[in-house]
Amino acid sequence: MTQKSGRGEPLLKLVILGRPNVGKSTLFNRLAGRKLAIVHNHPGVTRDWREAEGKLADLHFHICDTAGLDGFESPEIKEQITQQTSQLIQKADILLFMTDAREGITSSEVMLAQQARLTEKPLIMIANKCEGREGRQNLYEVYRLGLGDPIPVSAEHGEGLDDLYQALVPYFKEEEEEDPVETPPLPEEMRPLRLAIAGRPNVGKSTLMNALLGESRVLTGDQPGITRDAVIIPWHYEKREIQLVDTAGLRRRSRIEASLEKFSARSTLEEIRYAQIVVLVLDAHDPLNKQDLTIASNVIEEGRGLVIALNKWDSADQKEWHNIVHKLGQSLSQVKGIPIIPISALKKRNLDKLMKAVLQMDQLWHHRISTSQLNQWLEMAIERHPPPLSGGTRVKIKYATQIKTRPPTFALFVSKPVELPDSYTRYLMTSLRDTFNLPGVPLRFLLRKGK
Ligand code: GDP
Ligand code: GDP
To answer: Is 417 marked as a binding-site residue?
Structure first.
């Protein structure tokens, strides 16, 4: 499951700094995902600090909670705290500086901020307790610390974690090169598959979820939450462990308070980010609309595997759904071969076919091509259709290598990357997709300068 943490590399260490009572432990507990975590208690000068393995969606890290660094009033204690803090800061890869948006800023925080500012470490400001109306009363005070824009969160309610995730992603996003020899991917049956069911309101998402899980299943049980509204429902399909991302809460809320426009922008993006494979449900009675296509392109842009379920097949007109399939083909031409499965969630028809497509997409999403095969293909593709001339010389593509899976990502070493037209990269992608039989899965090319 380690998606962006650099396999085989030590995990990044996140250290939560802040005065007592701002909510550091609450955030720590949330990120440490109690069950998985082995919590080490380290005796500290003033109080203990704890460290555990933590995760937020697909980001994995070490998280360190600096229990209570307070008492700057007393000179001896101040010295000790400063030392302990600087030790922790030194250990950190990323600092999370947490404040309380309700209480405002105290003098000990100003001191702590001074210390934090002296380091070169990346620092993310977090303003906690932001839930509800009075939550943000003193939010502006946080700017006084001069450490940048705070991310408003509520550690207790799990709000704002998607923004925290967004802020963290760039530090993990280095396209780490996996070493297929040293760390072979887990056998398929051991990897849980994180699956989301997305789509506009009323297309039949809840019905599908219930049909998959079985009627008896209650959707709002005590499941681990990943955001305020999204929970993971563990499930098995055949022998495969599936984690269904359920954002029913979000859907309910958006129905009440938001327009349809707002719905698609907010809730589905969140859902998509937490998933690996996304089933986009469409209503076979409704003509394909802009929102459907936006969701589909979001899935592709986020590099997730997309499977389309054309629901309400039981009562749809052949012509209606042929129209949809035709339009989908035209609109999603950048990724040829996305599976479109007609289903009836209500009558439980074709659900096996849908799940088979999901599992197959997951396989493609993990697909790895050997460097020698890749370069044989590259040579063939270039011979068939050479790169364009640029200022009299030809842009040369020297070499290709797959640097990661999920989704398959390839580095192309190019003499003049900026001069390689998009149309040529598209040609290569189509050719790669056809040659290695990778229908419907997003592929990524990274251009790198090579002599
Ligand atoms: P720490 O001492 O800084 O680690 O803070 P704790 O995590 O122990 O939290 C201190 C208090 O703040 C506790 O009573 C928490 O329940 C409360 N708290 C933590 N997070 C939130 C939040 O998001 N909103 C509100 N209203 N209270 C919170
Ligand atoms: P959601 O808003 O996407 O979760 O949609 P729901 O699951 O609440 O379904 C919306 C409506 O579509 C309900 O009235 C369902 O009974 C109906 N529906 C769902 N799936 C099917 C289907 O396969 N066939 C038909 N005819 N109706 C369906």
So the answer is: no
213 and 245 co-located in one domain: yes
pLDDT-derived band at 67, boundaries 50, 70, 90: low
Domains: count for the chain: 3
Going from the Cα of 284 to the center of ligand 1, the distance in angstroms, rounded, reads 47
- Is the whole-model pTM more than 0.80? no
Residue 282 binned pLDDT confidence (cut-offs 50, 70, 90)? very high
Cα 145 to chain center, whole Å? 30
What is the position in ligand 2's atom list of the atom closest to the CA of 207?
7
Order of strands across the sheet with 277-283?
A: 231-237, 240-246, 193-198, 277-283, 305-311, 340-342
**Would the annotation count 18 as a binding residue?**
yes
Regarding whether 411 and 308 lie in a shared domain, the answer is no
| Residue 399 forms part of a structural domain | yes
Cα 23 to middle of ligand 1, angstroms = 3
CB 53 within 8 A of CB 73: no
Pocket lining: 205 vs ligand 2, CB cutoff 6 Å: yes
On whether residue 350 sits in a domain, the answer given is yes
pLDDT digits (tens, 9 = 90+) for 122-171: 999 999 999 987 777 778 888 888 888 899 999 988 888 878 877 887 78
First to last CA, the chain: 35
Residue among 239, 102, 213, 96 at smallest CA distance from 164: 96
ipTM above 0.85, yes or no: no
Mutational test site, ligand 2, from 197, 200, 203, 207, max ligand atoms within 8 Å of CB: 207
Q: Decide which of 319, 350, 366 is a domain's last residue.
A: 366
210 lines ligand 2 (CB under 6 A): no
316 Cα: distance to centroid of ligand 2 (angstroms): 13
User: Considering just the CA atoms, what is the radius of gyration of the chain in Å?
Assistant: 25
Residues 403 and 349 both lie in one domain: no
Range(s) of the domain holding residue 70: 13-171
User: Per the domain annotation, does 8 fall within a domain?
Assistant: no
Residues 312 and 401 in one domain: no
Which residue is associated with the tokens 């251009």? 447
107 Cβ closer than 6 Å to some ligand 2 atom: no
Residue 311 annotated as lining a ligand binding site:
yes
Domain boundary among the residues 333, 366, 399 is at: 366
| Residue 190 half-sphere exposure toward CB, CA atoms < 13 A | 5
Domain membership of residue 236 (yes or no) is yes
426 and 299 belong to one structural domain: no
201 CB less than 6 Å from ligand 2?
Answer: yes
